[in-house]
Amino acid sequence: MSAFVEFKNVKKTYKTGEVEIHALKDATFEIGKGEFCVIVGASGAGKTTILNILGGMDTLTSGSVKLDGREISKLGKKELTAYRRYDIGFVFQFYNLVQNLTAKENVELAAQICKDPLDAEEVLRQVGLGERMKNFPAQLSGGEQQRVAIARALAKNPKLLLCDEPTGALDYNTGKAVLKLLQDTCRKKGMTVVVITHNSALAAMADRIITVKSGMVESMRLNTDIVDVEDIEW
Ligand SMILES: Nc1ncnc2c1ncn2[C@@H]1O[C@H](COP(=O)(O)OP(=O)(O)O)[C@@H](O)[C@H]1O
Ligand SMILES: [Mg+2]
To answer: Which residues belong to any copy of the ABC transporter domain (predicted)?
Structure first.
């Protein structure tokens, strides 16, 4: 049987005029269903490229990518849009909320375009924002805005939650609380969560740790000594 996520010999070359940049030279890894996976590596290693390809936001130059047995690398433009819409939830470093919509409206907006969305209010309560639904992003702290972004992604009820440096804009303790929310979501909902980070200390909280270096997967291992994020110091 194949893994839930399968990334096989993926290459990605960006061409800018005469210049070719090999963002991914040869990346191979897999992720099991319901796992909390941390992808770690230095800036420029190719982490975002991996996540964007996995999320259908970018195409690959060669190789193969599968989610739940489906070959993503062979999808056409329309199918890729549907894949992004129905199967993937994204959480970005800078939240990307719509500023003139309330927290609840931001979550509803994303849920509207889905087949089988979860209730916006219910998801906002789950991320600890039951009392802040009517607030606009500017009235919320960074950590609260990231919680809205997580609720927005979860309300789509995606197969895969992809988070690119989700704590990059947050202070230490707020960042920890957001990571705890992601870890709890994985445990309680059985959600498969992928978190990208340049902070190798965070690897300790993962079920699976993938290290990326210079466009290649340097190592992949299952973590047998999982640490609660509250107990990780960096
Ligand atoms: N759209 C693009 N055009 C050209 N080069 C890119 C593009 N996106 C990323 N790159 C390059 O690919 C490499 C990997 O980038 P990225 O995946 O963003 O790394 P990371 O997220 O690990 O910091 C870097 O050298 C980066 O400059
Ligand atoms: Mg990046």
So the answer is: 5-232
Is the separation of the CB atoms in 211 and 221 below 8 Å? Answer: no
Answer whether residue 124 shows pLDDT above 80.
yes
Nearest to 157 by CA among 112, 109, 114, 212: 114
- Pick from 15, 21, 57 the residue to mutate for probing ligand 1's pocket: most ligand atoms within 8 Å of its CB: 21
d(CA 12, CA 22): 6
| Residue 14 in contact with ligand 1 by CB distance below 6 A | yes
Q: If we measure between CA atoms, which residue out of 195, 180, 190 comes closest to residue 50?
A: 195
Domain at 5-93+160-231, CATH homologous superfamily: P-loop containing nucleotide triphosphate hydrolases (3.40.50.300)
Sort 174 into a burial class: Cβ within 10 Å, 0-12 / 13-18 / 19+.
middle
Q: Provide the H-helix boundaries in the chain.
A: 47-54, 77-87, 103-112, 120-126, 142-155, 172-189
Which ligand number lies closest to the CA of residue 164?
2
Determine the distance separating the centroid of ligand 1 and the alpha carbon of 93, expressed in angstroms.
16
Cα(108)–Cα(112) distance, integer angstroms: 6
Nearest atom within ligand 1 for CA of residue 22: 12
- pLDDT score of 153: 97
